[in-house]
Amino acid sequence: MSKVAILYKKLHKWPGLIISFVLLYYGITGIFMNHRELFSGIDISRKILPENYKYNNWNNAALKCNVIIGNDSVLVYGNIGIWITDSAFSKFISFNKGLPEGSDNRKIFDVHKDNNGELYAATLFGLYAYDKIALEWNRFDLQGPNERFVGIESIGDTLYAINRSYLFKGKASGLKTHFMRVELPTPEGFINKISLFSTLWQIHSGEIFGLPGKLFVDLLGIVTIFLSVTGIIYFFFPNWLKRRSKKDKPVATIARINRWSLRWHNKIGAWTFASLIILFFTGMFLRPPLLIAIARAEVSPLKYSHLDQPNPWYDKLRDILYDNERDILLISTSDGMYFTEVNHLQPVRFINQPPVSVMGINTLQSCEKGAFLIGSFSGLFLWHPDYPEVYNYATGKLYQEQTSGR
Q1: Does residue 177 sit in the same domain as residue 233?
Q2: Residues 172 and 44 reside in one and the same domain
Q3: The domain containing residue 279 runs over which residues?
Q4: Tens-digit pLDDT profile for residues 335-389
Q5: Which residues, in sequence order, are CB contacts of 313 under 8 Å at separation 6+?
Q6: CATH number of the domain that 175 lies in?
Q7: Quick check: is 23 in a domain?
Q8: Do 168 and 45 lie in a common domain?
């Protein structure tokens, strides 16, 4: 055996043992994550999770915002669903009837009350209206993608809702609201680019090639589990065999399992080597520290893939807000802040842009004198579209753009 082969065997054996336990975990959880909606009804208690996953003082986006629905009735909502409380926030009662079980199904991005008092909710897996008679939420059956709704607004008797790719418009009628899906026009100066992060994410999940791609990645997840288990077997079984042989104990079954594990570990590993390298390599860039290196990089969408969409706003819409002073709709996107006239839905990019983290906006509210409150992982800022100056809302100081932020 050559020196290179000996070195490879040692590197594959010892680091591989440690990595195999990690890959075993990734393989199992990755399959669940790849079918999030399918498993959305299954919950795990946060009590058994690390401290940073536990709710404390409404952290982890447990509550995001509130809507006043009566003199002493307030709806609060966020990642724990929708709850009704009084003006003193003295007690909380579940307002989730009609929403499917599971924390993902009760991940609420927006709750809106229209001019007639009807309630609507934008959730991770759909758009809902509240039935005041049955006292429960009902999901709209909409054209096209019916998930990842992020914002709702009403202007007069017209209701606007957006998910990550489309705007939905209809006459506000509660449960009877009929929505028309609107693909927003291409903005001036549009360049068909998408984030490298999104590209790597969809390659890693297989979604870039639709359901067949996701199922193929599921298969790679099963292969990862198999290689991890057989690798662990081959690491421990030879020494176990020696110990049993010295004690004259039966070893035939263990020896067969060891030989079978080694044979198929090598064969399946060789057959799937290239695909697994792509899977593991793309996965490395989806979390810090490697994520930082690609966070703002953009590439052209891969031709004929799931990302090659005719819709210029595919997976780019993040929030919506009506500005009654200017009579325009503000639309936050992954490409920046845009506005459009109500009667002519043509997005135009603001010249002066607020600082927003690449992870997206989570606060968009009107303030006095035509300004807006903008919040994201970059911080909380006071932004006025007509002026280039942006102020840190917490400190009151002028914001200085950072090279690491947008």
Answers
A1: no
A2: yes
A3: 196-299
A4: 999 999 998 999 999 999 999 998 899 999 999 999 999 999 999 999 999 999 9
A5: 165, 166, 183, 184, 333, 347
A6: 2.130.10.10
A7: no
A8: yes
pLDDT in tens, 229-278: 999 999 998 889 888 888 888 888 989 999 999 999 999 999 999 999 99
In a domain, residue 15? The reply is no
Residue 331 in tokens: 């639309």
In angstroms, rounded to a whole number, what is the distance separating the alpha carbons of residues 107 and 79? 4
Q: What is the pTM of this model?
A: 0.88
DSSP character string of 269-321: HHHTHHHHHHHHHHHHTTSTTHHHHHTT-EEPPPTTSTT--S-TTTTTEEEEE
Give the DSSP letter string of 75-118. EEEETTEEEEE-TT---EEE--TTSPSSTGGG-EEEEEE-TTS-
Residue matched to tokens 């990019």: 349
Note whether 265 and 288 are same-domain residues.
yes
Q: Tell whether 188 is covered by a domain.
A: no
d(CA 340, CA 329): 5
Instruction: Please give the order of strands across the beta sheet that includes 167-171.
Output: 149-155, 158-163, 167-171, 180-182
In the block, tokens 């998408």 appear at: 194
State whether 330 and 385 are in the same domain: yes
Side-chain-facing half-sphere of 123: CA atoms under 13 Å: 28
Question: How is residue 144 written in tokens?
Answer: 């096209």
Is the same domain home to 283 and 401? no
Beta bridge partner(s), residue 33? none
Among residues 299, 329, 350, which one ends one of the domains? Answer: 299
Count of domains for the chain: 3
What SS3 state is found at 56?
A: coil
